[in-house]
Automatic annotation (TrEMBL):
<dbReference type="GO" id="GO:0051607">
    <property type="term" value="P:defense response to virus"/>
</dbReference>
<comment type="function">
    <text>This subunit might be involved in maturation of a crRNA intermediate to its mature form.</text>
</comment>
<comment type="similarity">
    <text>Belongs to the CRISPR-associated Csm5 family.</text>
</comment>
<protein>
    <recommendedName>
        <fullName>CRISPR system Cms protein Csm5</fullName>
    </recommendedName>
</protein>
<keyword id="KW-0694">RNA-binding</keyword>
<keyword id="KW-0175">Coiled coil</keyword>
<feature type="domain" description="CRISPR type III-associated protein">
    <location>
        <begin position="12"/>
        <end position="282"/>
    </location>
</feature>
<dbReference type="Pfam" id="PF03787">
    <property type="entry name" value="RAMPs"/>
</dbReference>
<dbReference type="InterPro" id="IPR010173">
    <property type="entry name" value="CRISPR-assoc_Csm5"/>
</dbReference>
<keyword id="KW-0051">Antiviral defense</keyword>
<dbReference type="GO" id="GO:0003723">
    <property type="term" value="F:RNA binding"/>
</dbReference>
<dbReference type="InterPro" id="IPR005537">
    <property type="entry name" value="RAMP_III_fam"/>
</dbReference>
<feature type="coiled-coil region">
    <location>
        <begin position="384"/>
        <end position="441"/>
    </location>
</feature>
Length: 517
């Protein structure tokens, strides 16, 4: 039976750092740095007591728009994030970045980091969207078709090819190619913050000011995989096949790679050895070179420079309207460095695709293993984090249950007290009111205590009460029980029965008269 669909397994190995933007940045107010890791967090998930000094300080800084102050607050209080385990995304950082984050200003040094595309909860890993891969293939296919039809008027050729191969999805040939997203093949596929520096192509310079980008770390062997599916058109023919795509990719990207490396090696911006090692990796079957993500315009346009139109900004004075010019190629190129002081640089975005592989690519594996990569076991980290989060949730639930039990007990005690008060006579309620009042007053020696004097006056007044009320007062202000009765409110009553002070003797007589028959 004839196949109406062909599906191929595709593995991707980054040959140089890859940055695929997602429209988000790591802002210096929503990440912290500890050791060699950046911890991203959502500030709204901070577990800070609204009555605490930390909450008041952070609220004040945020209300004033003092972002530098907010950053310093988190530098000072990193444990609010680390101990609560609210960070659900981590990226590796170069050693020097921690110092930049702690000591440099947000305004002057722009500590934002361009974030890479990522898989949300529960994965929290970088990934490569299929749209980016399909776009890179489209560029290679259009360039090939243009070269086949270069004798036709250029503008018409371009418009025709664009409509045929990309155009509206329902009409384009690319609807017969279906790529799934390139998903990490293991939980330890890593990203890192790199420095991106812009260099002039055709004149010597030291490069512009670096910007920071989170990138997928290079040389992670077969770190991403995808399924590539080809379907048939209405005539039951395959418009594209695997070998066609491999051929178009290699024709375009190997040529682009060689031209770019020739210029960079001449400028002494990249290593010739790195270039030669990459070329050696391309000598195999079912292998294709591709370039992905943010890497400049030269790998996104036709190789025929006579039809390329790239709008570039000429140098201009500050506060003047910029002047643009149209050129056949860009005049600058972005290169990536692992740290800001490193002299070693490589190009952005190069990757190797392997189709339907059935065995290890030893040459590629050995090349990947030659580079020492940071050690960070994300799987172990996330497992520990989940365990800690569950422990925190269990503790919070226990505290909630205990707080609720305490609230119910206090409510019950309050209700019982109210029920008791309702059952008391006016004089008995007067006694309870006095005890509550004394609870709030300072505890002093009985000889100078206003509470002791007031209790003595109450004894004198109570001589006229009925029997039940007198007995009630007798028990409530018993001065002989340690830490109970009157001793809760007055000092110096230990051994009360033996006290010889005049006030103590008079107090004993008045109290005993309450129960005398």
């Amino acid at each position: 039976m004839k196949q109406f669909m062909q599906t191929h397994k595709v593995y991707l190995t980054p040959l140089s750092p890859i940055h695929i933007g997602c429209g988000e940045d790591f802002e210096p107010t929503n990440y912290i740095v500890e050791q060699d890791l950046l911890y991203y967090f959502e500030p709204s998930k901070l577990n800070i007591n609204s009555q605490s000094d930390n909450f008041r300080e952070l609220f004040s800084l945020a209300s004033k728009g003092d972002y530098e102050g907010v950053k310093k607050f988190f530098i000072k209080n990193k444990n609010l994030i680390l101990d609560s385990y609210i960070s659900n995304y981590q990226a590796l950082i170069p050693a020097e970045f921690k110092n930049e984050w702690e000591n440099k200003s947000i305004i002057q040094n722009r500590l934002e980091i361009e974030r890479n595309a990522y898989l949300p909860h529960p994965f929290h890993q970088p990934y490569i969207p299929s749209s980016g891969v399909k776009g890179a293939i489209a560029t290679a296919v259009l360039d090939y078709e243009h070269n086949k039809n270069s004798h036709i008027e250029r503008e018409k050729t371009h418009n025709h090819l664009l409509e045929k191969h990309i155009g509206l999805f329902k009409d384009s040939d690319f609807r017969f190619i279906k790529f799934s997203d390139f998903i990490p093949t293991n939980k330890n596929v890593l990203s890192q913050v790199f420095y991106a520096v812009n260099f002039e192509k055709f004149e010597d310079d030291l490069g512009g000011l670096p910007v920071r980008r989170e990138c997928i770390i290079d040389r992670q062997y077969r770190s991403f995989s995808s399924d590539l599916t080809f379907t048939q058109d209405r005539n039951y023919n395959f418009v594209y096949l695997k070998d066609t795509i491999i051929d178009r990719l290699n024709k375009y990207y190997i040529s682009t790679f060689k031209k770019e490396m020739e210029m960079l090696i001449a400028r002494k911006l990249v290593s010739k050895q790195w270039f030669e090692e990459i070329l050696e990796l391309l000598n195999g079957n079912n292998i294709a070179l591709i370039r992905l993500g943010k890497n400049g315009s030269d790998s996104k346009v036709y190789q025929d420079k006579s039809i390329v139109r790239i709008k570039t900004k000429k140098e201009h004075k500050r506060k003047q309207k910029p002047i643009f010019e149209t050129l056949s190629e860009s005049t600058t190129i972005w290169l990536v460095k692992e740290n800001n002081k490193s002299k070693e640089k490589v190009s952005f975005g190069w990757a190797l695709l392997e189709f339907d592989t059935t065995s290890e690519n030893k040459l590629l594996l050995d090349w990947c293993n030659k580079k020492t990569k940071p050690i960070f076991n994300r799987n172990e980290f996330l497992s520990l984090q989940k365990q800690k989060q569950n422990e925190i949730k269990a503790m919070q639930e226990k505290e909630r249950v205990e707080a609720e039990a305490k609230r119910l007990a206090e409510q019950k005690a309050k209700e019982e007290k109210q029920a008791l008060l309702n059952s008391l006579s006016d004089n008995q309620r007067l006694v309870e009111a006095k005890l509550a009042e004394w609870e709030k007053q300072e505890k002093k020696q009985f000889t100078v205590s206003p509470i002791f004097a007031e209790a003595k006056n109450l004894l004198e007044e109570a001589q006229q009460w009925n029997k039940e009320e007198r007995h009630y007062l007798y028990e409530k202000i018993d001065p002989t029980k340690p830490n109970e009765g009157l001793q809760k409110y007055v000092d110096g009553l230990s051994g009360f029965s033996n006290l010889k002070a005049k006030s103590a003797v008079e107090f004993k007589k008045l109290r005993n008269k309450l129960v005398a028959e």
